[in-house]
Amino acid sequence: MTFPSPALDTFALVTGASQGIGEAMARDLAKAGYNLIIVARREEVLRKLADELSAAHGVDVVVHPADLTKYDEVTALIDDIATRKITICVNSAGIASFGPFMDQDWDYEVNQFNLNATAVFRLTKAVLDQMVPRGEGAICNVGSAAGNIPIPNNATYVFTKAGVNAFTEALHYELKKQGIHVTLLAPGPVREAEVPEAEQSIVDKVVPDFLWTTYESCAHETLEAMINNKRRVVPGPLSKAMDFAGSYGPRAILAPLVGKFYSQMG
User: Fold this and answer.
1) How is the beta sheet containing 137-142 ordered, strand by strand?
2) Which helix (H) or strand (E) holds 220?
3) What integer best gives the mean pLDDT of the chain?
4) Which are the catalytic amino acids?
């Protein structure tokens, strides 16, 4: 059971590739020699990234602009990748909302569920339809340390991420003997290496810099975990602390405390 090597006729699929973890993963995969299919809503941003990565690393980068909150656009992506040989899949696209569930915009909450959960579910099945018969492939689904506990004022997000966490870890065990690497990335807060003071959120201001994980370091650690077929990767000290607390701390105490903090982000 080996991690797929780059080849002229194979591709790594990365969703949410226009920014954050998805972009950082796309950069690392291109640097390692993998051809890419990069997916996000902003076509202009994707094309700029594709041109940069192709020029720097000599890889083929296919741009597939899509809004993965839309069922039909996920279907179109599945039809596209069915014509290509996908050996790696990184499901990174995701959104979140904060504040009381009943006060949220319902359309946004439905789109959040469709993107964070349904699209991940469908795309995972689509790439496994290729990978399992070949006996080779690697998948990373981006869940969250927040998916470990019920967090008031973050209900839809934790609903989706708890599902992604459990789904991905279940597949890790199911597919181990079939040659497929399945890794859950369960980060806590991740950000750019430097955030201008005017753009800092409440989380940026209250959490010391040394506790943060950058997108770049998160991507490096995640790719290494995928290569070694680790079940779960939790990058950085803040993420590890959240993961430990969520897994082993008393929920009756933790949930209201974290929920109060999240209410300030609404």
Assistant:
1) 61-65, 35-40, 10-15, 85-91, 137-142, 180-185, 232-233
2) helix 215-227
3) 89
4) 157
User: What's the predicted TM-score (pTM) here?
Assistant: 0.90
Q: What is the pLDDT of residue 196?
A: 52
Q: How far is CA 163 from CA 16, 106, 142, 145, in A?
A: 19, 20, 11, 12
Q: Which residues contact 110 (CB under 8 A, 6 or more apart)?
A: none
Q: Please, which pLDDT band fits residue 189 given cuts at 50, 70 and 90?
A: confident
Quote the CA–CA distance of 168 and 124 in Å, as a whole number.
9
Mean pLDDT (whole number) for 2-23:
97
pLDDT for res 200: 45
Tokens encoding 231: 């079940």
Cα–Cα distance between 204 and 191 in angstroms, integer?
9
What confidence tens digit (pLDDT) does each residue in 50-73 have? 999 999 999 999 999 999 999 999
The domains found in the chain, sorted by start residue, are: 10-263 (3.40.50.720)
Mean pLDDT computed over 154-174: 97
Decide: helix, strand or coil at residue 171: helix
Q: What share of the chain is helix, strand, coil (3-state, %, to 5)?
A: 55, 15, 30
Which of 29, 185, 171, 162 lies closest to 93 in space, CA to CA? 185
Question: What is the full DSSP assignment across 134-145?
Answer: HT-EEEEEE--G
Strands 35-40 and 61-65: parallel
Task: Please report the beta strands in 81-224, taking only residues with DSSP state E, as ranges in sequence order.
Answer: 85-91, 137-142, 180-185, 190-191, 213-214
